[in-house]
Specification:
30 strands; alpha+beta; 25% strand; 13 helices; 9-stranded antiparallel β-sheet; TIM Barrel; Jelly Rolls; single chain; 630 residues
């Protein structure tokens, strides 16, 4: 068989076509690679550089009628807001998105000065926004929100921290970059944070505490301590340990250090100063101390926030006696709205939430929002809140929910409610106790009451045990940051106290029943079954004895919440608004005593595909949190 030999140098059949396709693929690949590169570069720029610029409120006309301005100050921001003081990123976004939608625009320090000094009008709804403590995570998690909503804020710092090797806090270079982004201004909380004249709740004198020691012993403190600029340094009997001259030199030295550090690191002293602690009625707890603080504040700063707890500043206010409100991380949006409404008398609408199950409730008092799977029922200031399931009258039912409101306050569930709750069965968690009442003809009859720690079988410490534990912790706190010889002595004393035997509740000693902070969070799971005259309740897995009720007629289902005035706070004026928090509320009928699968009357929980997607998001967030914690 003979073959045909292709002449050398002749093109192979189809080679030209192949070459054309090859070159075309190269061009397409090059274009794709360039596009990918551009996407990557854009993503990097988005991550590390600010591509937006703050636009001042000039787009909003100043108001002919004077409304003053509101001032909000957040402690800080983190990703999910479970730190105790720092608000979560999405929660902060919900707060600020709402205010922006209601026409609030941020104003600057210069705007405030012009308002007071020159009579320059402000927009009708003006917001001065602050973030305290100068934390790096605040800048990271707030920046995107500021850019998206075109907001400007003041970041407060302690200049003492500039020289410390603590990456949690912003350094001068970071602050300059924030300023250059146009979304931030600089302010100060003072030179440092420290405490003097501190006693624990048992009257033990602790003296001076830096922030680290303070954090260690704070669970055992009462209200008897002070910020280091507010008073003379005193001994255990309250007698000053320093003369007037020494007090003046100590306080003056702090302000001079503040001035020198800011001028060296930033080139200027910030315009805004926040005096800690607030609400003294002047500039300190003692007239002569107040006079020294006032001298330096007026010498260094054109404006000073001297009060906390109220949001509104009006034209008649003093530039050196401004007030701010510090929203807490757990506040739902209606809590913030409630506080602003009653301070400003502005007509601000409450938020219902986007989910359809919210429409099932008629709100009779307060405000109700359904966000994700949780119903947030917000009271009026120093008042109550009430929401009832619309068009529903039930006799026998099973109700299950997680109750996540603060421990001090009341979260109520009314069953078989008739005649405006003049007749009802009421199950409530109030001030860390489970209380069951039957209301007949408007008169409440208590059927059951027990403290939740007792009901759950938690260990109840005695006053003597708490006192001993306080002293152990205090010695450990002083040892942690003392010189080696002193640290050994403190640790030895702590160990000696730890081995000391004291009376327990089982021995007949008095149980410890301290007044709790209104900030203390609580989480309880409740299952309620009501059938005929029999009421059964399981709280946190603990079943209480069945209760016999006289109310056997059909009635409505209502949720209630009420503010309780007995709680207190170390760091704020007592909040006068309370949130009942009902998560994954599920109401069914038709099941047996142990059957949770009866006919669903109402549920706030996700179902079907929505539930699967939500659980997937929860899992993803949990994985991210694990990696961030490493």
């Amino acid at each position: 068989m003979s073959g045909h030999k292709i002449p050398q140098g002749s093109p192979i059949i189809g080679e030209e076509t192949y070459t054309v396709h090859k070159n075309r693929r190269k061009k397409v690949r090059a274009v794709v690679q360039l596009l990918v590169l551009l996407v990557v570069v854009f993503a990097i720029l988005q991550m590390f550089f600010t591509l937006k610029t703050y636009e001042p409120y000039a787009v909003a006309e100043p108001s002919a009628e004077d409304h003053g301005f509101i001032a909000l100050s957040y402690f800080g921001v983190d990703r999910i807001g479970d730190s105790g003081t720092r608000i979560g990123q999405e929660q902060l976004r919900s707060h600020l998105e709402y205010l922006r939608a209601q026409g609030y625009v941020t104003i600057t320090q210069r705007d405030i000065l012009a308002y007071y000094q020159q009579g320059k009008p402000l927009p009708e709804r003006s917001l001065y926004l602050m973030f305290e403590d100068g934390r790096r995570d605040t800048a990271i998690f707030a920046q995107e929100i500021m850019e998206d909503l075109n907001l400007k804020a003041t970041i407060m710092t302690y200049p003492e921290k500039f020289a410390l090797h603590d990456t949690k806090f912003l350094k001068p270079r970071d602050l300059r970059e924030l300023e250059e982004s146009s979304f931030w201004e600089m302010g100060t909380n003072g030179y440092r944070l420290a405490y003097i004249n501190a006693f624990d709740r048992y009257g033990n004198f602790l003296g001076e505490l830096d922030p680290l020691r303070f954090a260690m012993v704070s669970p055992y403190l009462g209200r008897h301590y002070n910020h280091y600029l507010m008073d003379y340094i005193r001994d255990a009997d309250g007698v000053p340990e320093e003369s007037d001259r020494q007090m003046k030199e100590r306080i003056s030295r702090d302000y001079m250090q503040l001035r020198d550090v800011y001028e060296e690191e930033l080139g200027y002293v910030p315009l805004t100063h926040v005096l800690l602690h607030a609400n003294t009625g002047r500039f300190g707890n003692h007239a002569r101390v107040s006079a020294v603080n006032e001298h330096w504040i007026r010498a260094l700063f054109p404006m000073n926030f001297n009060r906390e707890g109220y949001v509104l500043n009006e034209h008649g206010s003093s530039l050196y006696d401004l007030t701010r409100m510090q929203p807490q991380p757990y506040w739902p949006i209606n809590h913030l709205i409630m506080r602003i409404k009653y301070d400003t008398q502005e007509d601000l609408p409450f938020v219902d939430g986007p989910r359809e199950p919210r429409r099932a409730w008629d709100v009779h008092e307060g405000a109700l929002e359904l966000r994700e799977e949780t119903l947030y029922l917000t009271t009026l200031p120093e008042g109550s809140a009430l929401a009832c399931l619309s068009g529903t009258e039930l006799r026998d039912l099973r109700l299950e929910a997680d109750l996540e409101g603060n421990a001090f306050g009341a979260q109520q569930i009314y069953l078989r409610s008739r005649d405006g709750r003049s007749n009802a069965v009421c199950i409530q968690l109030v001030n860390d106790a489970l209380v069951v009442e039957e209301i007949i003809g408007g008169v409440a009859h208590e059927l059951y009451r027990e403290k939740i720690p007792v009901l759950r079988g938690d260990y109840i410490p005695s006053v003597e045990e708490e006192h001993r534990d306080a002293m152990v912790r205090e010695n450990e706190a002083f040892a942690r940051y003392a010189s080696p010889p002193d640290a050994v002595a403190y640790f030895a004393r702590a160990e000696e106290l730890r081995r000391t035997e004291v009376g327990t509740v089982a021995d007949g000693a008095e149980p410890y029943e301290g007044t709790g902070s209104f900030h203390r969070r609580a989480l309880h799971h409740i299952v309620i079954r009501l059938r005929d005259e029999q009421l059964s309740i399981v709280l946190d897995g603990q079943e209480i004895p069945d209760i016999i009720v006289r109310q056997t007629e059909r009635g409505g289902v209502c949720l209630g919440a009420s503010w309780q005035g007995m709680a207190w706070s170390q760091r704020n004026l007592a909040d006068d608004v309370y949130d009942g928090v009902f998560r994954r509320l599920n109401i069914t009928t038709g099941g047996g005593r142990d059957d949770a699968h009866g006919h669903v009357v109402y549920t706030s929980a996700y179902t079907g595909l929505e539930q699967k997607l939500h659980r997937a998001r929860e899992l993803w967030n949990a994985v991210v949190d694990v990696f961030l914690a490493i």
